[in-house]
Amino acid sequence: MPRPSGPSLRAQTGFTIAACTALVLGIGLNTSLFTLFNAVALRPWSVPDPGNVVTAQFVHASASGRGTSGFGIAEYRYLRERARTFSGLIAWQRSGARLGQEEIDHQTPFSFVSGNYFDALGVRMLYGRGFLPDEDRAGNPQGVAVISHRLWERHFAGDAAIIGRIFRVDDVPVTIVGVAPPAFDGTDPPNAQSFWVPLASLQRLSADPAQALSVLTNPTHCCSRLAGRLAPGVTREQARAELEVLSRQFRTQWKDQTLRNVPLVLSGTAFLAQPGLKASLVPILALMFTAVILVLLLACANVGNLLLARALARQREFAIRLSLGASRRRVVRQLLTEGFMLSCCAGTIALLVAYALPALVVRSAISDEIPSGIAPDARVLVFTLGIAALACVLFALAPALKVTQAAMETLVARREVTRVGRRLRSALLAAQLALSVILLASASLLVRGVQQAQTRDPGFQVDGVFVVSLTFPGQAYGQARGRAFVSQLHTALKADSFGTVALTNTIPLGNVRNMTSFRLPGEDEKLSRMIQIESVSAEYFRVLSIPVVAGRHLDATDRSGGAITINEALARRYWPDASPIGQTIVFRDGPREIVGIVRNAHTTGLDAIEPVSYELTAGGPSTRLLLGSQTSDPTPRVQAIVSGLDSRVAVQARPLATYRDRSLEPSRVMALTAGAVGLLALVLASVGVFGVFSYVVHERTREIGIRMAIGARAPQVVRLVLGSSAWATLGGLAGGFLASSVVSRFLTGQLYGVSPLDPIAYAMVAAVLTVAATVATWLPARRATQVDPAMALRVE
Fold first, then answer.
1. Full-model pTM
2. Which of 297, 325, 484, 761 has its Cβ near the most Cβ atoms within 10 Å?
3. Are 650 and 170 in contact, with CB atoms under 8 Å apart?
4. Rounded to an integer, what distance in angstroms lies between the CA atom of residue 483 and that of residue 441?
5. pLDDT for residue 1
6. Residue 222: is the preceding peptide bond cis (ω within 30°)?
7. What is the pLDDT of residue 337?
8. CA dihedral 348, 353, 354, 359 (to 10 degrees)
9. What does the pLDDT look like over 49-71, one tens digit per residue?
């Protein structure tokens, strides 16, 4: 009878701990990443019957791939009144605001939603109620809100008497009428919303109520997101066809051709199901999963070598069992059972890790506002069981087959057995080294990419430039008054020796793209292209030191004429063999004349430069000011000037370099993660190399003792030990570097100009591996030189 697997593993505690630790690292990383992926990207909205809820958007081609457009609020109301394939249609817009006395640059995420939002989704309040129809009527805004469970606990200390309490949103009083259930974070995964107000509240919370009313009623305004719950028995295609017909009727009625011939798409509510996201997220997700799968393979190779050494030590036992009538299948089954027990143990611990690690990483590295429910569920459990079973096959099957095959051949002759074991051991060692090289090289390249981005010339002046942001008190400032205040502040700052002061509607390196459609003169009106447009003042290019390469800069006289300047990327794309100066392009609001070309600059982000056009801004409540050539923090002086104009206006001045650092945060997190995975791979590979060479010393102790007895010197013994796996080591390293040169090409988008074959990155990997390999092999080789010949000859 074979020995039970449990006692066998308990009898060798050191082996069991080492094997389980390696497997926990491999399975744990995979389970934790899949837990995060499942919670953020795969899980639908936390509403009843989520499979019956769909989102709707127009999908069109854009400069960065597939773009989406939503619906105007007036169009949404038209569709809601006429659609029969939905039991309820909802609309919403994401936004952000200050709560109470929060800092000016802290924006709490919330959403403007249609009055039937909670009823159509079937969300039942923990306390209070949702919205009433009268609370979402344009022209009659009501100051009411439903708050999230998270905000209720954090901001209001879980007060059970919260209903009817008033809190301030951008200094506007709002009454709490409901508290959402704990599982509901809103309809914008993975972004958790803190509270919801009716769409009509745009008039209360906007600095320009008249403009907000236009947004609520203007039939050509865009864009709100739209979703609905399908009526019983209705398919997605039926609902899509009806919405498309109704939308076409609405736009024909108002002569809006903006989205003519652009397809309407219905999709599920999971984050990854949204059109346009899959193409951009899949490559990143593929790289992340590839990295953790490589760690799993590395751990399996490590454990496979441990199991092989353990099985070879028991080869005599297996040969005796086979000679007594035990079938090979039964012995293999016992070895696989031991491996499966190791996998199950590691999988159980990995699930415990997945309960804490993903939420901790998101909270510390990305945001405090994380979606609820980032924890393993049934889907994660099935995934973990599958990974554990796969790991068992990967690390246990090959050693079991090899050892039992050798044991069947002979009971006494061990030469053939040793040869078979050595081949498999060398293959596993080469695999470990190759995988560790791939992971280390990828991590090294990503770190080099972040270093390159931090020192990369963005094409404009960053040091010494400050960004001034303003927050106006509630409804006290409409568009006209806000524009007048910004103009006064602009003049006051220039008069106070601040030098050149510019206006801009978007912050450089803020990763915000304002897009509009345009066409060339003579082209069909149906043909439209998307282009990035920035609204700036004439001083913008001087503050940022962006030179004009042809034509001239914008000036104040261009506002009435609608002139624009463009960057070199736009000029090369549409006028590769001619000068665009004096040419006209047609925007939605009419033709624009190109008066100048400015040098390419990374004004949006430090990734690829896109075609950009610049127009003059009229200023307004959302406008930022750029202060150039500042040698010290100008905040006190700016605050004094702003207080002199209106003490109710809050002001914040931040260095432009701060926004550059923020734009690099995702890349930093990726590089840090890759570095941690690479370090883990290095540790696993080093332990694997140490184990292999230690086993070589143990296996050849008798031979080493004989050699030393007949006069072999320590260097000769060291060469014997190292030479036993030298070709496997060199082959694994060479294969790893070769594979890295291929894999690294998929990282190009995160390298900020660093070559995928960057010699410095690969030199760093080579240096680290050299040190690790030296330490991992020196200890077993040193032990070999200390073998006592007399003791070695007694070894059986």
1. 0.71
2. 761
3. no
4. 52
5. 44
6. no
7. 83
8. 160
9. 999 999 988 876 554 455 667 78
Dihedral sign from CA coordinates of 634, 638, 639, 641: positive
**Contact between residue 454 and residue 779 where contact means Cβ atoms under 8 Å apart:** no
DSSP letters for 410-479? -SS--HHHHHHHHHHHHHHHHHHHHHHHHHHHHHHHHHHHHHHHHH---SS--TT-EEEEEE--GGG--H
**What is the C-alpha to C-alpha distance for residues 689 and 680, in angstroms, rounded to an integer?**
14
CA distance 609 to 133: 47
Radius of gyration of the chain (CA): 33
The pLDDT score that the predictor gives to residue 81 is 92
Neighbours of 772 (CB within 10 A): 18
Buried-state track 589-615, b at ≥16 Cβ within 10 A, e below 16: eeebebbbbbebbbbbbbbebbbbbbb
Contact partners, residue 468, CB within 8 Å, separation at least 6: 624, 625, 626, 627, 638, 651, 652, 653
Other beta carbons within 10 Å of 645? 12
> pLDDT tens digit string along 69-110?
778 888 899 999 999 999 999 999 988 887 876 555 567 889
Query: Which pLDDT score, from 0 to 100, does residue 146 have?
Result: 95
Q: With contact defined as beta carbons under 8 Å apart, do 588 and 468 qualify?
A: no
- Computed from CA positions of residues 290, 295, 300, 305, in that sequence, does the dihedral angle turn out positive or negative? positive
CB 500 within 8 A of CB 543: yes
Structure tokens at 2: 């074979």
Q: Are 594 and 583 in contact (CB under 8 A)?
A: yes
Q: What is the DSSP letter of 233?
A: T
CB 407, CB 313: distance < 8 Å: no
pLDDT of 129: 94
The position carrying tokens 């690099």 is 664
pLDDT of residue 566: 87
Residue 767, burial from CB neighbour count under 10 angstroms (0-12, 13-18, 19+): exposed
Q: Which residues of the chain have pLDDT under 50?
A: 1-2, 63-64, 368, 411-412, 414-417
Q: How many residues does the chain have?
A: 796
